[in-house]
Amino acid sequence: MRFSGRERHQVFLEPEGLETEEYYANGVSTSLPVDVQTKLYRSITGLEEVEIMRPAYAIEYDYAPPTQVKNTLETKLIEGLYFAGQINGTSGYEEAAAQGLMAGINAGLKIQKRGPLVLTRSLAYIGVLIDDLVTRGTNEPYRMFTSRAEYRLILREDNADLRLRNIGREIGLVSDEAYHQYLEKKGSVEQELDRLKRTVIKPSPQINADLERRSSSILSAEASLEQLLKRPELNYGDIEKISPPPVSIKPDAAEQVEIQVKYEGYIERQMNQVKRYAGLEQKTIPPDLDYEAITGLGSEVTQKLKQVRPVSLGQASRISGITPAAISLLMVALEKRKRGKAAG
What value does the mean pLDDT take over residues 311-323? Predict the structure, then answer.
């Protein structure tokens, strides 16, 4: 029915385990009645006598528009009620688990009368996921793709602990042992980065012979270990052989050192972008701000701002249809409000 113009379709029969005769038919997704499924499978060459152990099925689910929840995943209408997962319009287990984690954390913090935890877009993919949902909403099942993150160069798997372990420790989710390992790695990385900058290598027959063996140009003048590691043909292991550190560092710390040195320019450029937009993120918008009283905002802009109720100018700027001119008007209105309260 879907591809009637095609004569062939691939189906992969995947064994479900070593101790079972059950196979999964990959490529035949369906929710047809069981008797129709049986006819379908037996029409495939080689499966004329196949038996279905578990039929294929489909699930339909509804969702609540995620613009109805705060960036803590607490609903705007009912205090203490948190939404997480497919109810917010997402698809995929990782997205659901990430939201469940954040909703659980914020529910626990609220019970403890502590401030909420909101991860920014520059700090975690979870931050991108939740900000996209609560700011822009979604008209189709949302998946978290790396392309959605404008700061994906610094949101890497290898530095997740360096970005988030301190936060986990503060809210009581990181054990003493895990935190000690994190501090050890962080200290090793910082010390080795400092050593690579300070250690200068002079040209010598042995050094140049080592470089030539690695298809790297020889030294004609002094160079720091950091400069050598920036060469694409050299890795940290090569530098370690040329000049071993006083104390050997673990592989994960060595990997972090190499990444930070080799991609320093790109990482620094991304960090500057984060700093440039941090100002808008820090300018908070009161939840009771009367958007209709702000002269110059169009009716469509006003409607969208009232629907989302952004918590900062940064979030407001990411709402579809909110122009730079509207952000400028918001900045003026917030400044007037601030001066009015100060005068009062």
Answer: 91
